[in-house]
Specification:
Layout: E1 5-8, E2 21-27, E3 29-35, E4 38-44, E5 47-49, E6 54-55, E7 61-63, H1 69-81, H2 105-109, H3 122-127, H4 138-145, H5 160-174, H6 178-190, E8 196-197, E9 209-210, E10 220-221, H7 229-235, E11 244-247, H8 248-259, E12 283-284, E13 287-289, E14 294-295, E15 301-308, E16 311-318, E17 323-329, H9 336-347, E18 357-358, H10 360-370, H11 372-384, E19 389-390, H12 393-405, H13 409-422, H14 427-439, H15 443-456, H16 461-466
Parallel strand pairs: 18-19
Antiparallel strand pairs: 1-2, 3-4, 3-17, 5-6, 7-11, 8-11, 9-10, 12-13, 13-14, 14-15, 15-16, 16-17
Length: about 475
């Protein structure tokens, strides 16, 4: 079993007057914090390969998932800086078969193009579930997709295929493969000696691990977990939005090269918040967005994170303080973005809200391993500890349903029961709780819950169907 360890910052130098602890988020991988060119803190935890007993280290390579997008952004900005392309050029100037007129390179970079995400491959995946899709499959899939649901420039909407199109444009303009372009124009100048696209066989690369179920204590290789298969196939060969493999040390070398002017003469355009067609700032959740980077409002922090099953990554940089935080995780740990922001703000001696862990995971795991009574006792302690724990209704829905569908009926009932007590006015939770009660042999009580769910939300067609 993989032992999950809390990330603890043991001591900090003069720039960090207080000892900081990330004592409620679990971490499995490597972390680095630096300021003004000096590494303040660096540590690795856990195993790159559990079976072989190989520990994570500063030299361990991790697949970066969507953190790879920053390299695509830099590549495009390099070509624009050299006047090989213009950011406001239409995409079909370079990719003649691209089916949507008027979408620009700038809109692809800023996720304001209106293009969908990897769901463009859903139908083809269902037809060929063993197929691994590549960037060359994007334009045919978009042609089959038909009209866009979003107006280009109308809103921010994350589109990984848009970044794959940018990789195709880089190849078209540079006349070399995307992999070769990154190696020559970014990795080598930055001194990233061990970074590559994922096709290289590498004994130092960390395996990606996931819990097979939300309530699991044990870990498995993420590519063997059934629920991960569709995403891994739809994204697994698409260069541009992912597939870069790197280490904590190489990423820090990239950070220093980018922010010292070695890779781009000027990064202002990349880190300027993008505006939509109506003049409003494009909002990516609570953040602004530039060209390939998230921008944290009210600060000088730019960042990008990455997620795929078994992998969580993030790089943050404060433009004013020249401070950097990098976290690479191969244990599917939660809260990596929050941990990164917390560590950055601690590095800057700025106020930082305490980190909180979701109650549902320790509750669900304890429920399966120690039983309902022990898990209830644990839950009581966690509910009282609002400093370290948090909860939302969707957590109870997700855990209850996961237990239900995997045959843990009594544990599912216990989870839905607690969730219903905490959130009695959620119609979806009422409905699923009713399903579990019905399966347990009490259709009358189940019907009462269905009726309550319909009163809470008369438009819930699923529960109306159950009452017929």
């Amino acid at each position: 079993m993989m032992r999950t360890i809390s990330l603890l910052i043991l001591c900090l130098v003069a720039q960090m007057p207080a000892i900081a602890q990330l004592d409620t988020t679990f971490f499995y991988g490597s972390v680095l914090a630096a300021r003004s060119g000096h590494i303040i803190f660096q540590q690795s935890h856990g195993f790159a390969d559990i079976e072989a007993g190989i520990p994570n280290s500063p030299q361990t390579n991790f697949e970066l998932a969507s953190l790879s997008k920053v390299f695509t952004a830099v590549a495009v900005m390099q070509l624009a800086e050299k006047s090989y392309i213009r950011l406001d050029d239409p995409v079909n100037k370079y990719l003649e078969d691209f089916p949507y007129a008027g979408i620009t390179i700038r809109q692809l970079l800023s996720h304001t193009s209106g293009l969908p995400d990897f769901e463009i491959f859903d139908k083809a995946y269902q037809a060929q579930p063993d197929r691994v899709f590549t960037k060359e499959d994007i334009i045919p899939a978009l042609k089959a997709w038909g009209p866009l649901k979003l107006q280009p420039g109308g809103q921010w909407s994350y589109s990984s295929p848009g970044m794959g199109l940018l990789a195709l444009i880089v190849e078209k303009v540079s006349h070399i493969s995307f992999q070769e372009y990154l190696a020559k124009q970014i990795f080598k100048p930055a001194g990233m000696k061990h970074t590559y696209l994922h096709y290289v066989k590498d004994s130092t690369r960390a395996k990606a691990y996931s819990h097979p179920y939300y309530f699991s204590v044990e870990y498995e290789n993420s590519d063997t977990v059934p629920r991960n298969q569709q995403f891994l196939h739809e994204s697994g060969g698409v260069e541009g939005p992912g597939l870069v493999v790197s280490s904590i040390n190489d990423l820090y070398a990239f950070d220093k090269a980018l922010f010292s002017g070695k890779l781009l003469r000027n990064t202002d355009t990349m880190f300027t918040p993008v505006r939509l067609a109506n003049g409003e700032l494009a909002m990516a959740g609570k953040n602004n967005f530039g060209l390939g980077w998230f921008l944290v409002p009210g600060s000088n922090i730019v960042m990008h994170s990455g997620y795929k099953p078994g992998t969580n990554t993030i790089l943050l940089h404060d433009l004013k303080a020249n401070a950097t935080v990098i976290i690479l995780d191969n244990g599917n740990s939660g809260g990596i973005t929050q941990s990164g922001l917390y560590l950055m703000r601690t590095l800057l001696s700025a106020p930082a809200a305490g980190l909180k862990a979701a109650i549902i995971f320790p509750f669900g795991r304890d429920l399966v391993t120690h039983g309902i009574d022990h898990a209830t006792l644990l839950l009581g302690n966690m509910l009282a500890d609002t400093v370290h724990y948090t909860q939302v209704v969707r957590d109870w829905i997700a855990m209850g349903y996961e237990l239900y569908r995997t045959g843990h009926l009594q544990e599912s009932l216990a989870t839905f029961r607690v969730g219903h007590l905490l959130y009695p006015n959620n119609d979806f939770l009422c409905m699923l709780y009713g399903d579990a009660i019905a399966k347990n042999g009490d259709p009358l009580t189940a019907r009462e819950l269905y009726q309550k769910a319909l009163l809470l939300n008369p438009s819930n067609k699923e529960v109306a169907e159950r009452l017929k």
